[in-house]
């Protein structure tokens, strides 16, 4: 038997905690000005401005400065150094959303400036991810770990990801009327080249900013024998903001935000690899927001923030295949023996429009202070999934859009849709009260929300499933979510917290109303308008402490999920296998997380984070594949007046407890990264990064979980790159 001589991840984690504690004791002896408290404000996560240690729960805050230090280029990089968070990626389809404590992208709500992002959608080989954001435009990313529907409503089953874009005030001050910046980056792993330009300014009551970033890139490299589909891509992200302050009590903000991406693929048909195939993915997003902020002192509020918004996202996957023959033509008993050109256009489009209004009020009486936040949200989401495919005989130029899978098979007639065009209306009203009880050290935080959601389905263009006895129906349902937080201050610097929080995710348009028949392969997906929402209940207990520039947090959590929605075989009818989304069982995911940041003498800093989680399907008493293995991050950094750097170690344990025998497992791995910067002048800054310095071969669990251990090629293609270099140059005035 081969012995694994790799040091135990668990023992290393224990060592890093002890080292961190010893560093902390040394740092506490430093009474100089370097120990001034460093505080991070969480503006949106709790809907009230709060510091990290004053939140009943775990919220991860990543600002633009940290993103620049890590040379982050997309959402996948955001979770690189965040144990307990992960990202599943697809070669064609991109990032599938941030996974929080085992809950995947579709069970996590993502918002940009309060506007719901496009849904993650996957159907067989087609996937449409959540890549429509330029990180250069982002001021901060806040991630709520755990259920949060009491504040944010539907889809916050497992957590919330809040993106906040930059404002003019982030660039200009009273001493600077105009700001300009050029930003260039290169990454060798996918030959990514980026160039960005920013201009911002203010005059009198007006402020403005404009930022545009362009990229070119290829497919990412893979360590080992695997490879990704060859591609060439380009994207352009732009944001424009205009701010008007007529007086101290009013502010009006206009935002226009757009992102466009085109990716060309060289595809291969395993049956006929000698024949060329190509793909073109065209993804576009445009957002318009108008926000008004009022400050005053009325009976119902001291601050009111109201916004109206519209966002349109369009995703097109075009595939062109030259095929050796076709069964869709009737020239011969077994199809045409000449080559054909197949063109497929599959789309996933979604628009959202709505408004929100949030009120803030502080009331003090009898040694008790109430910090109230309450409001309403209303949005309408239109979703469609058009599919079109035709074949053309290259000799006769005859075209047909009735496609057969094999000789004499019933054809699939295009255009069609796998679910009806759907208008989803969501309306919610919420209130949360932070109750501070005198000098007792107790803060009680109750909250409650009522949501009404309605789905109107348009059946035009769907294949008929009436003969199978299934109907498509519109739905109208409601949900009440609550939370309760408790903070007890042990001292001026340390506190205990407890939180109970609920979450829910309403059945989506495709889950409730799938209506697709493939007679050629003899299967159908059928609707289920009686689906219940997925629900969750989360419990979290923890400790937080900040002393000077040092910060420590520890949390235990236990999340229970009910009525998971999953596609299942429900029987056979008229020779057709029927599949339907149904509510199944309950799931429990529990674990622990630790975070520490220690400021040492002479501008040194050490930080570490550890996440452990375990999940079980309580109905089948099996492990959950989506739960990440135990992981840890240790970083040691130096920040001088002109230069700085950080060395980061990533430790990930093996994953061998899986749902079913034969599922893929993962080995443990250790990575060493280095990032640094040098201020060439006051205006010019250079950043460098080397990732996976020792050129390790490894796969992130999120990208191989659920694969069969026999899927050797898929596992090989899921491996991460080897050693990677990045460089960034920023010039600003």
Structure description:
The chain has 733 residues and is mainly beta. The protein has one domain (32-165, 248-628): Maltoporin, Chain A, CATH 2.40.170. The protein has seven helices and 41 strands. The protein has a 22-stranded antiparallel β-barrel. A five-stranded mixed beta sheet has the order 3-10-11-6-7. The protein has a two-stranded antiparallel ribbon with strand order 1-2. A hairpin with a 4-residue loop joins strand 39 (669-679) and strand 40. The radius of gyration is 27 Å and the shape is globular.
Largest sheet: 22 strands, antiparallel, barrel
CATH-defined fold name: Maltoporin, Chain A
The end-to-end span amounts to 63 Å
Strand residue percentage: over 45%
Q: What structural class do helix, strand and pairing data support?
A: mainly beta
How many H/I helical runs?
7
Give the strand tally.
41
Question: What form results from the Cα inertia axes?
Answer: globular
Number of domains: 1
How large is the radius of gyration? 27 Å
CATH architecture: Beta Barrel
Poorly predicted parts? 1-39
The percentage helix is under 10%
The average pLDDT is 87
Name the CATH class. Mainly Beta
């Amino acid at each position: 038997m081969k012995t694994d001589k790799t040091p135990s991840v668990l023992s290393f984690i224990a060592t890093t905690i002890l080292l961190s504690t010893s560093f902390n004791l040394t740092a506490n002896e430093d009474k100089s000005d370097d120990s001034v408290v460093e505080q991070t404000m969480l503006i949106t996560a709790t809907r009230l401005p709060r510091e990290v240690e004053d939140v009943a729960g775990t919220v991860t805050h990543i600002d633009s400065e940290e993103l620049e230090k890590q040379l982050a280029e997309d959402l996948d990089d955001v979770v690189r150094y965040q144990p307990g968070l992960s990202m599943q990626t697809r070669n064609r389809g991109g990032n599938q959303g941030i996974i929080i404590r085992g809950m995947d992208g579709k069970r996590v709500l993502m918002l940009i400036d309060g506007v719901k992002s496009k849904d993650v959608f996957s159907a067989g080989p087609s996937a449409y991810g959540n890549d429509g954001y330029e990180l250069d435009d982002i001021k901060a990313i806040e991630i709520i770990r755990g259920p949060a529907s009491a504040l944010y409503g539907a889809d916050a089953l497992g957590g919330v990801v809040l993106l906040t874009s930059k404002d003019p005030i982030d660039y200009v001050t009273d001493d600077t009327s105009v700001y300009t910046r050029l930003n260039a980056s290169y990454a060798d792993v996918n030959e990514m080249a980026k160039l960005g330009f920013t201009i911002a300014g203010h005059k009198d009551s007006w402020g403005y900013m404009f930022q545009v970033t362009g990229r070119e890139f290829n497919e990412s490299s893979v360590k080992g024998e695997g490879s990704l589909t060859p591609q060439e891509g380009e994207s352009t992200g732009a944001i424009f903001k205009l701010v008007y302050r007529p007086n101290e009590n009013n502010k009006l903000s206009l935002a226009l935000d757009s992102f466009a991406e085109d990716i060309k693929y060289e595809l291969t048909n395993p049956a006929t690899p000698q024949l060329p195939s190509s793909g073109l993915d065209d993804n576009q997003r445009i957002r318009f927001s108008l926000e008004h902020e009022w400050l005053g002192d009325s009976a119902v509020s001291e601050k009111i923030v109201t916004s109206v918004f519209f966002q349109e996202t369009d995703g097109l996957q075009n595939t062109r295949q030259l095929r050796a023959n076709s069964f869709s033509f009737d020239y011969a008993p077994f199809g045409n023996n000449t080559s054909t050109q197949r063109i497929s256009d599959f789309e996933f489009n979604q628009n959202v429009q709505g408004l929100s209004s949030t009120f803030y009020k502080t009331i003090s009486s009898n040694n008790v202070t109430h910090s109230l936040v309450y409001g309403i949200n209303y949005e309408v989401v239109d979703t469609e999934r058009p599919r079109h495919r035709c074949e053309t005989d290259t000799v006769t130029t005859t075209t047909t859009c009735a496609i057969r899978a094999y000789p004499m098979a019933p054809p699939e007639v295009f255009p069609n849709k796998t679910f009806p065009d759907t208008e989803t209306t969501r309306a919610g009203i919420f209130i949360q009260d932070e109750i501070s009880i005198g000098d007792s050290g107790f803060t009680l935080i109750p909250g409650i929300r009522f949501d009404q959601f309605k789905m109107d389905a348009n059946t035009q263009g769907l294949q008929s499933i009436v003969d199978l006895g299934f109907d498509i129906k519109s739905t109208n349902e409601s949900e009440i979510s609550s939370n309760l937080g408790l903070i007890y201050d042990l001292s001026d610097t340390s506190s205990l917290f407890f939180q109970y929080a609920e979450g829910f995710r309403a059945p989506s348009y495709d889950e409730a109303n799938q209506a697709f028949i493939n007679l050629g392969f003899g299967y159908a997906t059928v609707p289920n308008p009686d689906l219940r929402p997925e629900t969750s209940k989360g419990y979290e207990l923890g400790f937080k402490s900040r002393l000077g520039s040092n910060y420590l947090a520890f949390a235990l959590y236990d999340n229970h999920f009910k009525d998971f929605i999953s596609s299942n075989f429900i029987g056979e009818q008229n020779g057709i296998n029927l599949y339907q989304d149904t509510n199944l069982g309950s799931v429990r995911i529990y674990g622990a997380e630790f975070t520490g940041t220690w400021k040492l003498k002479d501008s040194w800093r050490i930080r570490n984070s550890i996440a452990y989680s375990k999940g079980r399907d309580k109905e089948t008493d099996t492990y959950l594949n989506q739960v990440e293995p135990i992981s840890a991050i240790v970083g040691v950094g130096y920040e001088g007046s002109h230069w700085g750097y950080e060395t980061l170690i990533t430790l990930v344990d093996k994953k061998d407890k899986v749902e079913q025998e034969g599922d893929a497992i993962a080995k443990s791995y250790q990575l060493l990264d280095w990032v640094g910067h040098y201020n060439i002048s006051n205006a010019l800054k250079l950043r460098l990064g080397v990732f996976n310095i020792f050129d390790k071969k490894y796969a992130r669990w999120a990208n191989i979980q659920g694969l069969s251990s026999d899927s050797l090629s898929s596992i090989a293609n899921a491996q991460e790159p080897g050693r990677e270099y990045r460089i960034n140059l920023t010039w600003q005035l």
